[in-house]
Each structure stands twice: as C-alpha cells, then as structure tokens.
Amino acid sequence: MLSFDFLQRPRFISGPGVINQLGALAKELSATRVLIVSDLGVVAAGLYKKGLDSLEAVGLTCLGFHDLHENPSTDDIEAGVKVAKDFQPDLLVGLGGGSSMDCAKGINFVYSCGGRMQDYWGKGKATSDMLPMIAVPTTAGTGSESQSYALISDSQTHVKMACGDPRAACRVALLDPELTVTQPTRVTALTGIDAMTHALETFVTKDRNAVSLAYSRAAWQYLSHSFSKVLEDPYDLDARSRMQIGACMAGMAIEASMLGAAHALANPLTAHFGIAHGQAVGVMMPAVLRANGRDTHIAELYRTLLVDLGIHVPCDKAGDTLADWFVKHLHMAGLVDRISLLNITETNFDSIKSTLGKAAAAQWTASFNPVIYDASKMERLYESVS
Ligand SMILES: [Fe+2]
Known about the structure:
Layout: E1 11-14, H1 22-28, E2 33-37, H2 40-44, H3 47-57, E3 61-65, H4 74-87, E4 91-96, H5 98-113, E5 122-123, E6 133-137, E7 149-153, E8 160-164, E9 172-175, H6 185-202, H7 210-232, H8 237-257, H9 261-273, H10 277-292, H11 296-308, H12 318-332, H13 346-362, H14 375-384
Parallel strand pairs: 1-9, 2-3, 2-4, 4-6, 5-8, 6-9
Antiparallel strand pairs: 7-8
Helix pairs in contact: 1-3, 4-5, 6-7, 6-8, 6-10, 7-8, 9-10, 9-13, 10-12, 11-12, 13-14
The chain binds fe (ii) ion.
Fe (ii) ion (FE2) binds near residues 197, 198, 263, 277 and 281.
C-alpha cells in the first residue's frame, strides 16, 4: 500500500464560470487551431457554444467534431481522425460527458501516433508525444478528465477497450458546475451512480495505495453527501460542484488503483443488451458489496465508508449495510436494482448468463477486485440480482 508510482497530470480549475477561461488556457498551451469534440446533446444544450465563444474570443480557429455516439466506437474515432487530418489541430478539447472526452482522447492516439485505435488497447502503447488536450466535463460521472485512459468500443466485437498512456492525460481539466445544471435528471442519476461506484470500487481494489485511498475516500464523502441534493434540486450549484469534484477525484483514484468486479459484471450487460453504463454498474454494485464484504479486511474498509455516512455497524454487517444504502439511492435516482427490471426478458437472461459470467471473469477490471471471482461465481452474482 505504501509502494506506488503516481504522476498527477491535469491542472484542475474548479468554479462557476471557469468555462470562460478556456480561450486563455488554450493560448497558454500555444494553440492556434482547436478541434472541439462534443456530442450533439452537448451542442443542443448550448454548452459547446460556450466553449467555442471563449476560444474564438482570443482569436483561435476552431472546428467542432460531433459525429460520435454514447460509448464511442472505433468507427467514431476513425471519423474524428479523418476530420483532424483535414483540419490539422494543435490542441484538442473534449467538451461533454465521458463519451466526448474519451472520443477526443481516442482521436488523439490515432492522429498523433498513427495506426488504428486497437493498437493502443492496454497501457503505455503511444509511440510519440500527443497533442495537448483540455477536458471540460459537462457531467459528474466518468472522471475521464482525470484519467490517461479512453474507453473505446470495438465496432466489430463490441468489446470495450481501455486504451491508456501517460501522454494521453489532459493538460487541464475545467470543472464548471454551471455546465451540469441543465442535464436531464436521468443523466444526473446515471452519472452520479457511476461516480459513486468508482469511489466504492477503487477504495478496495488489490492495487489500492496511499494515494488512491485518499482520493477514493474524499470522492465518497463529496458524492455520497451531495447525490440526493442534486436529485432534489438540479440547480443547487454547491451540490453540483461537489458532485463534479467528487467524480473527478474518483477518476484520480481509478488512475491510481483501477476498478473492480462491479465494472467487470456491468460491461457484458452493456455489450450484450445495451444497458446504460450507470444502470449496469448500479445494478451489480450491491451484489459485489455483499460478496466482497465477506472478506474481513474489505468489510473493515466498507465500515469506514459507512462511518462517513454516520452509520455505525459491526464489521460483519458492513457489506450488506453499504449495499442497502446503495440500493436506496438507486431507487431515489429512478434506477432499478434487479436485472429482471431491465429490458431483458427472463428467457434471454437465463440462456446467456453463463456467457455473461465468463465475459465478466475475463474483464481486465475483474483482476483488480480484492477477491477474485471465477466465471461460475460471476454467474451467481448475476443470479443474486436477477
Ligand atoms: Fe464506471
């Protein structure tokens, strides 16, 4: 736990209205031509224009790339690289949710280093320096702004590839809570639940260390105390800011210690049934809390997180109690806690659960869970919330 190698890369700037600093920050990075990656929802919400206005106000030439989808694919990256080759940017801005930021990172890999996205699957595969990038998150969820990884789906196999390299890390992350107040309630729910699972999973991974534990714990405190507030009042700017900082810190924790079994179980649900990531990881998190909580050391860590909620229970009740708290917040967010309540028919699920179990056990994130679960145990975890 006391041995680690952690380079904190992005400069973080947080506060209402900091989007207006985007142009000046781009100039600091010697930018002249800026490619802004934002999905169409971000454009429709008027947030893309805020970034564009700030960049154009300081005389920068800008182009938007909007042809990307939720869970960006290798096809999206290819389309973006084509645009970049024509435009020749010297700075990338990922302005939007995790999809926009990950897509910008993916474009950066292929544009800067050549080849195709699949060449960068894994860690440290970049072959040259990459363009500087600024991240401007408009949700409080993935923490992509603080990670050197991009999650890109292979268009052929639908496998989610984690592609990371220290050179892909953003130079600056602008955390402006005003950008998050207009998002639909369901997006607040899905991204907030995802961010909380990041705090919960990183806090106990096998690779947890002094840095990750500090970020996970702080993220948990920010997120767990603010989530219900942003659901009740979307315009509570203080709570929005706390969610954004919490999600960002959870992203730092992922960078330092990776994720766990809930993400390993969630990814096959998304790949096979198109379940939104926040819902998929939300439905599986309680099962993992209950299972991991049978390990005494992990239960002790869970007990620490419960103390942050003002809940005091004996160690042997910690996993179940934390799972119950999480389920309550799933319901509060309008999300479900059973696979049978998702758009999957019983027959479909029964016929595929063995395949899902194998896929979950084979996920990279499964190898970081504090307890290693094989394919049959993963299948039982699916069954426990079916
Ligand atoms: Fe996640």
